[in-house]
Design brief:
Layout lengths: L2 H12 L3 H20 L4 E3 L3 E8 L2 E5 L4 E5 L2 E8 L1 H9 L1
Antiparallel strand pairs: 1-2, 2-5, 3-4
Helix pairs in contact: 1-2
């Protein structure tokens, strides 16, 4: 399902025009990205959590050039679904 399909579905069920729904979805994504960029996790009860995971520094190999390089420690975004969410998906 794409963002446009989600917006269409929400617009149909709520009666709100699609452009407003798209703006709300865009703003939601912007707030989540901004929060994660500042190291803050986002918790949506009953849905899941958008969290920041830390990756440790590691050594990687370039097999084409037969060299090694150091990949510095860095943060990556992740999503952890709530138990209710996982149970609902497992039913189907």
């Amino acid at each position: 399902m794409t963002k446009a399909e989600i917006a269409t579905e929400i617009a149909k069920t709520t009666g709100i025009d699609k452009t407003t729904v798209v703006n709300v979805i865009e703003q939601f994504m912007a707030v989540v990205k901004e929060s994660l960029a500042h190291g803050e996790n986002v918790y949506l009860r009953g849905f899941g959590s958008f969290i920041v995971k830390q990756r440790a520094k590691k050594t990687a190999r370039n097999i084409n050039k037969n060299t090694t390089l150091i990949v510095p420690a860095h943060n990556i975004p992740a999503f952890k679904p709530a138990n209710v969410f996982m149970d609902e998906v497992a039913k189907n």
